[in-house]
Amino acid sequence: MRFKDKVAFITGGGRGIGETYARALAAEGAAVVLAEIDLPAAQSVAVSIAESGARAMAVHCDVADENSVDAAVAQAVARFGGIDILINNAAKHLMEFAGKPTELSRAKWRLMLDVNVIGIVNCSAACRPSMRARGGGVIINQSSIAGFDPTTPYGISKLAVRGLVVALAREFAADQIRVYGIAPGPVDSPSAMADLPPALLDEFINRLQLIKRQGRMADLVGAVLFFCSSEASFITGETLTIGGGYPLKI
Ligand SMILES: NC(=O)c1ccc[n+]([C@@H]2O[C@H](COP(=O)([O-])OP(=O)(O)OC[C@H]3O[C@@H](n4cnc5c(N)ncnc54)[C@H](O)[C@@H]3O)[C@@H](O)[C@H]2O)c1
């Protein structure tokens, strides 16, 4: 129960990786806020977490809309008294955004950048005052290994997410707010498993990864709990790849 006095605001917490992070933090005592554009999905996760005895709330939030983010953060602060942990997980992703840069419509480019990049700026700015008032906090940005070889619109957005890890770490350090990135390879969220072509998954598992098995959402949880804990108190501005050994970097 190492997070029993903490409040975590998780964007895109209504399914997949965001839901997995919320359940893991709640199991360690945190109150969790599931900030979602899909409110019914977030409500059903909140009910399920509350049934396990933890504190959870669902709130409507479009991370791309500054006013929506401010209202969601205000609701979370009113309910739980503040925010200590922000997980910027919501994103436009999957094959729709994995083609050639000039072949994606400009409207879809703008929407994706608004959600994946500006969304992180909106949520980080909105949570900062509460974190500062509570003596500090932790922000985790969900990047991707696609951000290390960014040949697609999605990869370019996730490269920007890595940049925001460093930029926000510098900007928020004075408020004792630490900032991290997590860059997974393909993991078994229901949306990824439904959308990623089997040949692409096979390429990752059998050719690109050193550890030759499908990545799981559970493989990401240990890093999140570590970054949120005091054991990471002398680390900030770092992005950790979790991809079975791909991509290897020196
Ligand atoms: N699944 C993978 O293999 C994988 C790999 C690398 C990185 N990632 C990243 O991990 C994160 C989660 O992935 P996932 O597979 O769980 O995704 P998902 O699509 O299953 O879930 C994303 C959630 O975000 C919500 N969302 C979308 N737009 C939003 C908005 N504007 N405001 C608020 N909420 C919004 C959706 O409603 C959804 O519940 C994403 O950032 C993704 O890019 C995923």
Instruction: Calculate Rg over CA atoms.
Output: 17 Å
Give the CA-CA distance, first to last residue. Answer: 36 Å
Question: What is the helix/strand order?
Answer: EHEHEHEHEHEHHHE
Estimated share of beta-strand residues = 15-25%
Q: Any idea of the CATH class?
A: Alpha Beta
Give the structural class. Answer: alpha/beta
- What ligands can be seen in this structure? nicotinamide-adenine-dinucleotide
Give helix % range.
Answer: 40-55%
Question: Which strand order do you get reading across the main beta sheet?
Answer: 3-2-1-4-5-6-7
The 3D shape can be described as globular
Mean pLDDT: 97
CATH homology superfamily: NAD(P)-binding Rossmann-like Domain
Low-confidence stretches: none
- Main sheet overview: 7 strands, parallel
Instruction: Count the E strands.
Output: 7
Separate helix tally? 8
Query: What is the third-level CATH name, the topology?
Result: Rossmann fold
Instruction: Label the CATH architecture.
Output: 3-Layer(aba) Sandwich
Number of domains: 1
Task: Give your account of this protein's structure.
- The chain has helices at residues 16-27, 39-51, 66-80, 106-133, 153-172, 190-195, 198-208, 218-228; strands at 7-11, 31-36, 56-60, 85-88, 137-142, 177-184, 238-242.
- By secondary structure, it is α/β, with parallel strands linked by helices.
- It has a single domain, classed as NAD(P)-binding Rossmann-like Domain (Rossmann fold, 3-Layer(aba) Sandwich).
- It has a 7-stranded parallel β-sheet, with helices on both faces.
- β4, α4 (106-133) and β5 (137-142) form a beta-alpha-beta unit.
- The chain binds nicotinamide-adenine-dinucleotide (NAD).
- Nicotinamide-adenine-dinucleotide binds at residues 11-12, 14-18, 36-38, 41, 61-64, 89-91, 93, 115, 142, 144, 184, 186-187, 189, 191-192.
